[in-house]
């Protein structure tokens, strides 16, 4: 079985041009809803040469009650087609800043059959630090996604056979499940307000907190397997057991899921609704102390 870390590519001064020639670069930049910056504006300002912009909000299920809900397959494939992407496309995902979203997009693409998908380790910041080129002119029309027609929109059905994602019922029916929350500690403990209105502060009872930023080195690259395993060991995570990762809306939970797979975890799923769903549902319990 291929090690998942092989999908993470660290750029160098020597391989930068090779990467751009072989892969279609995809900018996945995204920011929290209470941030004054947004990913598309950042993309319009500068990007990897010939990169295209992946708007995770547009690529998620339309009219869903919670943000970033996994869409129906046909809808997602139509969205990717609007960017000139097919399941056979060689793709290189990266972020420019804000919340690291490329890992979520990686899992979405894998869920729907895209195989040749890689992540740019360190994102755009690491690329720039190496002195590699950027494109700063206005992007062409084919570098931006198109809005889909109403006829292409379908409602997502919660399929228990999803390979990478799970839904609320999966969490309620499994008392042995390990839950890891990727949000920053103040949000996990309910010490700060949530960025989305109507969402209670706190976390799922029994969840353990491993903030996603703790998985990265100072240069923005993912830590090595030994360092990652040490973090999971400190939280007494059983890598052989069933693990579900969660966060605000399923974005940074994908980073923790990727890191877990790097160190050998085999039974990992991302809670699609995450805290945007759990915190908004008053029929579900919350906690505000460290497990």
Describe this structure in words.
The protein is of the alpha/beta class and 291 residues long. It folds into 2 domains: 4-145, Rhodanese-like domain (Oxidized Rhodanese, domain 1); 165-278, Rhodanese-like domain (Oxidized Rhodanese, domain 1). It has 11 helices and 10 strands. The strands form 2 sheets. A 5-stranded parallel sheet has the order 1-5-4-2-3, sandwiched between helices. It has a 5-stranded parallel sheet with strand order 6-10-9-7-8. The longest helix has 10 residues, at 73-82. The chain is globular.
Name some characteristics of this structure:
about 290 residues; Oxidized Rhodanese, domain 1
In short:
It is globular, with a radius of gyration of 18 Å. The strands form two sheets. Strands 1-5-4-2-3 form a five-stranded parallel β-sheet, with helices on both faces. Strands 6-10-9-7-8 form a five-stranded parallel β-sheet. About 3% of the residues have low confidence.
């Amino acid at each position: 079985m291929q090690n998942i870390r092989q999908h993470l590519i660290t750029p160098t001064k020597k391989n930068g041009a090779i990467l751009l020639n072989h892969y279609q670069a995809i900018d996945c930049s995204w920011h929290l809803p209470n941030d004054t910056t947004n990913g598309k504006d950042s993309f319009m300002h500068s990007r990897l040469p010939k990169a295209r912009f992946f708007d995770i909000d547009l690529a998620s299920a339309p009219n869903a009650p919670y943000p970033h809900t996994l869409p129906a397959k046909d809808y997602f494939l139509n969205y990717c087609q609007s960017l000139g992407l097919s399941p056979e496309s060689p793709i290189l995902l990266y972020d420019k800043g804000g919340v690291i979203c490329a890992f979520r997009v990686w899992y979405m693409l894998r869920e729907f059959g895209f195989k040749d998908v890689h992540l740019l380790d360190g994102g755009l910041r690491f690329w720039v630090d190496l002195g590699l080129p950027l494109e700063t002119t206005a992007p062409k029309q084919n570098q931006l996604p198109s809005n889909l027609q109403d006829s292409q929109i379908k409602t997502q059905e919660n399929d228990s056979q999803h390979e990478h994602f799970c839904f609320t019922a999966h969490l309620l029916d499994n008392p042995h499940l390990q839950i890891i929350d990727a949000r920053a500690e103040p949000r996990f403990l309910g010490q700060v307000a949530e960025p989305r209105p109507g969402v209670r502060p706190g976390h799922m009872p029994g969840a353990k907190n491993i903030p996603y930023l703790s998985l990265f080195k100072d240069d923005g690259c993912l830590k090595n397997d030994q360092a990652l395993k040490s973090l999971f060991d400190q939280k007494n995570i059983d890598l052989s057991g069933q693990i579900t990762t969660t966060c605000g809306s399923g974005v940074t939970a994908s980073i923790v899921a990727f890191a877990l797979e790097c160190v050998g975890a085999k039974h990992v799923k991302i809670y699609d609704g995450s805290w945007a769903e759990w915190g908004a549902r008053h029929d579900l319990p919350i906690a505000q102390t460290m497990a």
